[in-house]
Amino acid sequence: MPGMTFRRQFRLWTLNVGLWTFLAAAGVFAVEPLANTKPLETQGDLADLMVQGIDRFLLKQIDASVEHRHRYWKRDLSSAEKYNASVAENRKHLAKIIGAFDPREPITALEYIETTAQKALVGHGDGYEVYAVRWPVLRGMTGEGLLLVPTGKKPLANVVAVSDADQTPEMLVGLVPGVHPAGQFARRLAESGCRVVVPMLIDRADTFSIAGGGARPTNQPHREFIYRQAFEMGRHIIGYEVQKILALVDWFSNEAKGEDAKIGVFGYAEGGLLALYAGALDTRIDATCVAGYFGPRERVWEEPIYRNVFALLDEFGDAELASLIRPRALIVDFGRSPTIEGPPAPRDGRGGAAPGKWSSPGFDAVKDEFARAATLVDGLKSTETFLFCTGGGDDHEQSVFHLLRSLTDAEPADPGHAPTYNRPGFDPQQRLKRQLDEMTEYTQQLMRESEYTRRALWSKASRKSVDDWRETSEPFRKMFADEVIGRFEIDRLPPNPRSRKVYDEAKYTGYEVMLDVFPDVFAYGILLVPKGIAQGEQRPVVVCQHGLEGRPQDVADPKINNPAYNQFAIRLAERGFITFAPQNPYIFHDRFRTLQRKSNPLRKTLFSTIVPQHQQIVDWLASLPMVDAKRIGFYGLSYGGKSAMRIPALVNRYCLSICSADFNEWIWKNTSIRSPYSYVGTMEYEIFEFDLGNTFNYAEMAGLICPRPFMVERGHHDGVAPDEWVAYEFAKVRHLFSDLKIPERTTIEFFDGPHTIHGVGTFAFLHQHLNWPEP
Questions:
Q1: Is 89 helix (H, G, I), strand (E, B) or coil?
Q2: Which of 18, 181, 466, 704 has the highest count of CB atoms within 10 angstroms of its CB?
Q3: Backbone phi and psi for residue 421, each to the nearest 5 degrees, phi listed first
Q4: Sheet harboring 710-715: ordered strands across?
Q5: Which residues pair with 135 in a beta bridge?
Q6: Phi and psi at residue 671, in whole multiples of 5°?
Q7: Cα 242–247–252 angle (5° rounding)?
């Protein structure tokens, strides 16, 4: 997290845990279980075993997703009209998850780009002219590229030709080197009589990927730089570029009114991805060719993060997307595409990009996915092409032939001479920068407007009384659970509690506890039980949550005094509270971030696993004879503070929540390219939550905790955010509690300190609201 040098120093304390784990494995600690639990005999690093288990669980869920997708589909194959009507909701949802739903600007013509130094006409080929053009897409966002127009004759068809992201339109037309002549499908289609527009794509370089108001250059590919901002706002680099293609379809449709000219989209590699999505979304596209991209998508979590689409695999694989193109024409070209080895290498202070690689899947895998697509629409009558062709790397001649035959009765013309190019001094980087800036500004404007968007959404929640708030906020809790956090529709296993005594101190006894949750998924933590609890007495519990890369020992082991946590689980146990310190799985750097990558395509997040872990924890705690089930509170620092906003919002057994060293204006923090506090320029690539900006900032999450008590603990010198952000967002929370006539249930404590547990006002808050006397 930006500005958290102090907190990162705390990670050194975790080295002590390795020694502790070794001693436990060696049998130094007696395996003496808590009453009514089995002995915990599992050895090794339990945090490591937890992450391994969740990983196995998610991979099994991904594998199972292929068979589960049918629940979203009700295909009527009796006719083309009925089929399109039956999949309309699937199209609508696809547009939602790729962020391609904003109304486009009206388009009546393309704009020629011309200056005093350069005419719009930039080249000539055999039978066509090449123009530099621009067209409106969304408010303040345009598309740019090249228009190829047949000379002296009416176009036989209209085609959007989309190159790979690292190819320029000039390369695809053959105006400059970079694409083999047999791969210049834009030029070949123009030579054959088609009107062709070649849009430019945002590339994979990192030249302009600079956050923090210019202070934080990164090695994020430009596509990831846009992805991070847009994902939080329910948009996507994929959606933006699909919108640019569909704006051209709008123009073609307007131009072709009363004419027979059909519309096609042909894309290669990253352009193939876009062609597949565009063809799936828009029934005006008569024929779609996908080259060098199509295949099984179950390992999308390994691909570059700018291909991460929330909920994709829950409903769609490439076969399902192909089924949305039917009964129109689809050509899948197996030709291999460029291998993506990863983001640009870290260098000169540039870093933070997400790992991600991709190479063309094997022939059999692609063919099997295509066959699965054919099976999905088997029985739907159509005379249109549905074809798998082998292609040949850079050679797209077969695909050009089949696309032309799908759109016209013509066959490809013989290849002509390379076109002439008359654009002296043209720098494609300037065009790239313009397009990147437009996408960025569009997204930043969404961020600036998001407070009003959320306000309009939440206007249906009534503040007339606590009861009204409980009732009318419940649909938002369901939205948060289903559409933001995500939940597995799986019954939890019996907890099967196992424990072993690990501490025997003067004032408390400590136990490691393990509980089953899902197959391969368990919950684990350290329970501290104060000594002297009378028979039949029931005490309140405080669940004490560590932060990023933390462990239960950081807060509950008397031999470890990590200055971030100040042994707060121990301090509270010494005050008479029962405490439980869970292990949350945000540990081991990219290993846990990969869990988020594996969760997102399933319509899930890391918290989709963490929430049921905590549900199991609090249910088990509530079953203990010395625990008052109605007095279980949550208190977390940093990533544990993130947990304090999300987990109690969904786990009703938590009767209060304290967010320490994390509460702030979360949407600005995740979306702003200006703020030095923003995650856009940091290594935390897993932190972004799809469409959170339009639904739940921290004030709204606190609203889901309300009317239960809620507190914020904030050090003035905490680098997570400035004080004014924290105060600004908390003011909304205070206003809500005041409107409900329960202002005493919420408070904020500012203290003169860093990213740490202060344990003064928060301890008093716990004593007050958990009804336990202060010492």
A1: helix
A2: 704
A3: -135, 125
A4: 38-39, 498-504, 508-518, 521-530, 578-582, 539-545, 627-637, 654-660, 710-715, 746-751
A5: 143
A6: -125, -30
A7: 125
What is the C-alpha separation between 258 and 255, in angstroms, rounded? 9
DSSP, residue by residue, 437-495: HHHHHHHHHHHHHHHHHHHHHGGGS--S-HHHHHHHHHHHHHHIIIIII-----PPPP-
* Cβ(417)–Cβ(434) below 8 Å: no
Q: Which amino acid is at 193?
A: G
Among candidates 600, 701, 509, which has minimal Cα distance to 34?
509
Q: Structure pTM?
A: 0.95
Dihedrals phi, psi of 515, to nearest 5 degrees: -130, 140
Count CB-CB contacts under 10 A for residue 661: 30
CA distances in angstroms from 651 to 51, 478, 615, 661, listed in the order given: 22, 12, 6, 21
User: Rounded CA gap, 220 and 210, in Å?
Assistant: 9
- Beta strands 386-389 and 420-421: pairing type? unpaired
Q: Using CA atoms, how far apart are residues 170 and 610, in angstroms rounded to an integer? A: 49
Q: What would you report as the CA-atom Rg of the chain, rounded to the nearest whole angstrom? A: 29
